[in-house]
Design brief:
Blueprint (H helix, E strand, L loop, with lengths): L38 E3 L12 E3 L1 H10 L2 H7 L3 H5 L2 H10 L16
Antiparallel strand pairs: 1-2
Length: 112
């Protein structure tokens, strides 16, 4: 018995000529344009009632997680400047400023 509806639409192979590339979104922490991989980070952790998400590089998110506890992140909330006042985070942002958007490296472990 033949299917009524195809799995694929009749125009799947057709490409829109007007398709423009997606707009470049800046990273919430470092301000550099994001690359192919974007992490949607909760500035206030979900475990602490956070609902808002912001775009970040994976390496920037790893740096925040390594330097702050969930309680500290909750206290800072959406205040990027408060996070940048931490000397470790400031040093990281200055170091990563001239790197490629898809740059990745290992980050320091949590200091607890």
């Amino acid at each position: 018995m033949a299917r009524k509806h195809s799995k694929h639409g009749p125009y799947d192979d057709a490409q829109d000529e007007d398709e423009s590339p997606a707009p470049v979104v800046p990273c919430w922490l470092c301000g550099r344009p994001t690359g192919k991989t974007i992490v949607w980070h909760h500035p206030v952790p979900k475990s602490r009632g956070g609902r808002d998400v912001v775009p970040m590089h994976p390496i920037c998110q790893q740096t925040l997680i390594a330097n702050f506890t969930n309680s500290e992140l909750q206290r800072h909330g959406m205040d990027v400047q408060g996070l940048l006042d931490n000397p470790n985070v400031r040093k990281f942002v200055d170091w990563v400023a001239n790197k490629d958007p898809d740059f990745t490296a290992t980050t320091a472990k949590k200091k607890r």
